[in-house]
Amino acid sequence: MTDRELFLQVENLKKYYKTSSGILGRKDNVVKAVDGISFKILKGETLGLVGESGCGKSTTGRTILHLQRPTDGKILFDGADITKLSSKALRSLRPQMQMIFQDPFATLNPRHSVGKIIAEPLVINGIYKRGSQILGDRVRTLMEMVGLNPSCANRFPHEFSGGQRQRIGIARALSLNPSFIVCDEPISSLDVSIQAQIVNLLFDLQEKMDLTYLFIAHDLSMVKHISHRIAVMYLGKLMEVTDKNSLFDDPIHPYTQSLCSAVPIPNPKLELARTQIILEGDPPNPSNPPKGCVFHTRCPLVKNICKEDEPALKELSEDHFVACHLAGEAGGSYIF
Amino acid sequence: MFWIRVEGERENEEIVMTAVLEVHDLVTKFYTLEGIVHAVNGVSFSVNKGEILAVVGESGSGKSVTMKSLLGLISSPPGKIESGKAIFNGSNELGDLLEYSPQQLRDIRGGDIGYVFQDPGSTLNPIMTVGEQIAETILRHQVVSREEAYKKTLNLLEKVGIADPVTRYKNYPFQFSGGMRQRVMIAIAIACEPQMIIADEPTTALDVTIQAQIIDLFKKFQKELNIAVIWITHDLGVVAGIADRVLVMYGGRIMETAPVNKLYENPTHPYTIGLLGSLPRLNEDGYKRLVGIKGVPLDASKEIKHCPFAARCDYAFERCWNEIPKLAEIDPEHKVSCFYRVEKGGSQYDR
């Protein structure tokens, strides 16, 4: 993994949203959806981004693709700084970075045939002319690549099941030969047996086309399965970033520890034998995050320093980043 | 009163257990404008006192419809319960739930049988305080004064882990987080000390850390009150941690039923094997391809006269396409409806 070259670098990325409240909306609140996160993705690897709902993982993905402009920070894509690019300059870059969305029901135009949906990016980017023979061929190749029958090109999205629709979404994302794909919870709305099919497909495509993925999900076991490295997010900040085996074998941040222990294991004997760390309470409201470490309100090991100072993401061992005051200290950050 | 003999797990001695609910050959169909939907096609099972029975299946497998049929929660039309029996051994009488009048069913729901739904956001009344909703259930089913109901409610709120119950009583559901709302739903379900709780994907909409809290809470009450729980889910990980026995459903039929350990150690139906193969294992190193199941789930709008799983099964042979398999015993606790297993002995699936 170490011989791969750097592909995407995110430095201190921030995305704030303004919301108004109070009489006539005169009071401005700021929701810090993503608050200063930094990570890198190597070429051809999958970085899993996990966290609970509302922690800002989807916003991170959308901000990297510039579907939303970042408030602050830097995004280096294949060596070039794309943070300040104009919309026009971005357009020429877009074919290289695509997205697969969570809900295959809401992201396909119900009035377009599947063939048209997959062809649209090619037409818009002026690669092939609408209605040309070569465009038809390309659409058929793409459909075969994702395991759809090319003879279905004239059908409409509602005629397909959830898993097949997700395949249509993947074919559309692949149409422009991208090098980077943000997968935003691509399997969470699918049945278990279909999830496995889609995950296998994503994995095969990565091998074949040397794709780089940012895989956003909340299902930790599936993320471990598909990712090379995993970043754990909580309330707009990164808690821990490391390769997948260290994350599960030696989770250092108390939040990661509790997250790993909360994932149900499909084996009754292991389930009964282990001790679960059950966190108390709910994640705080992102419009009013706690002072100091954002996790301190639920952390079983909380110390005074956690309530005052925000811990920085520091590299504890090679390629293992943790944001916790207690990590590496005497006493340590281990719950057990 | 009826008795079922069950092998005692600990010392292999026979212990006697009472079944709280026995369902026989339940068939539910929906007569829609687009045609008949065959949702439940002959389901039989029983739940014992103090037992957690997990019902596993993918969307459209009929697991929710089965349970809703029992409690008269199927809107009719378009739904219709075609046949079946559901003998419920309640606190004061023994009767067939499917024969009950709407009045009797109202007494049972929230009284002897509690129901926890998947989405606590849409099942709580948004314009009634949380406390009133719990107290309402108590007042409906028990002969108590308002004062007593209020006190009981505060007690329940505290029991399900909601801090500061006096203030929280007066809060509305929107002031609660998803996990807190599910705690309120649990408080409503256990308010009248039921014989049985049906939990319909109670943790599916929640984050993992909150899911762990809710499961923990459920287990605590289940032990404390010794109630039977039917836990509907699609998550085989959750099942492993909570269930005593498992029913695997597909296409409105039961494919396999076994005690939890047997099911995970010796899954026998190709569908169960496929479901388990679709799951990544946290404790496995290196990349292993998921096995998964080919094809797409069954379309319930067509009536089928063969094994519902045949089209997706790697082992389907002629008989699977001509007949519907019935549940057959492998051992007294483990039943499977598969011709391949029964006829060809297929104990070793070549996977």
Secondary structure elements and pairings:
The complex is a heterodimer of chains A (336) and B (351).
Chain A: E1 6-21, E2 27-42, E3 46-50, H1 57-64, E4 72-77, E5 80-81, H2 87-93, E6 97-100, H3 114-124, H4 133-145, H5 162-174, E7 180-184, H6 192-209, E8 212-217, H7 220-226, E9 229-234, E10 237-243, H8 244-249, H9 254-262, H10 268-273, H11 304-308, E11 314-317, E12 320-322
Parallel strand pairs in A: 3-8, 3-9, 6-7, 7-8
Antiparallel strand pairs in A: 1-2, 1-4, 4-5, 9-10, 10-12, 11-12
Chain B: E1 3-7, E2 14-32, E3 35-48, E4 52-56, H1 63-70, E5 79-89, E6 94-96, H2 102-108, E7 113-116, H3 120-123, H4 130-141, H5 146-159, H6 165-169, H7 178-190, E8 196-200, H8 208-225, E9 228-233, H9 236-242, E10 245-250, E11 253-259, H10 260-265, H11 270-277, E12 328-331, E13 334-336, H12 339-343
Helix pairs in contact in B: 4-5, 4-7, 5-7, 7-8
Residues in β-strands, percent of chain B: 25-35%
Instruction: Give the termini distance of chain A in whole angstroms.
Output: 31 Å
CATH architecture of the largest domain in chain B: 3-Layer(aba) Sandwich
- Biggest contact: A-B, 44 and 45 residues
| Shape field of chain B | globular
CATH topology of the largest domain in chain A: Rossmann fold
| Fold-level CATH name of the largest domain in chain B | Rossmann fold
Q: Determine the CATH superfamily of the largest domain in chain B.
A: P-loop containing nucleotide triphosphate hydrolases
Cα-based radius of gyration of chain B, to the nearest Å? 21 Å
Largest sheet of chain B: 8 strands, mixed
Query: What is the highest CATH level, the class of the largest domain in chain B?
Result: Alpha Beta
Strand content of chain A: 15-25%
Oligomer class: heterodimer
